[in-house]
Predict the structure of Undecaprenol kinase/diacylglycerol kinase (ATP).
Amino acid sequence: MKDKKKKGIGLTYAFNGLKEAFKRERNFRIHLYVTIVVIFFCLYFQLTAMEWVIILMMIHIVLIAELVNSLMERMIDYMKPEYHPQAKIIKDISAAVVLIAAITSIIIGTIIFFPKVFL
Ligand SMILES: Nc1ncnc2c1ncn2[C@@H]1O[C@H](COP(=O)(O)OP(=O)(O)OP(=O)(O)O)[C@@H](O)[C@H]1O
């Protein structure tokens, strides 16, 4: 009974986290808008099941990377608001996580959509 209660509350906090990220993180919002456009593309071009799985995995990786980056930035701003070389390295590496996810998803998106659009 106690466990059940805990799970319910945890889910509420998780949804609140999503709400906060949407409200406060501009880049997260941009990624969500891009996600909606990509899903319309997928529907229009009638992707195969395997193509859908790959695109959904990439969307998921980019959104998770963006959330991890946001929480790193917030943790640094909370714990080390003044300039510090280590804080810079942490934030820069955190941004690199998003960059790698975004570059990979652009490459994969091009591989999947290029032949459908241009060939
Ligand atoms: N406390 C700090 N100490 C050292 N360098 C910092 C610090 N805070 C930010 N920076 C540098 O400034 C860059 C931008 O940081 P910032 O927190 O503004 O993130 P951002 O990438 O602009 O994200 P957002 O647009 O979501 O705020 C970091 O990547 C880092 O190089």
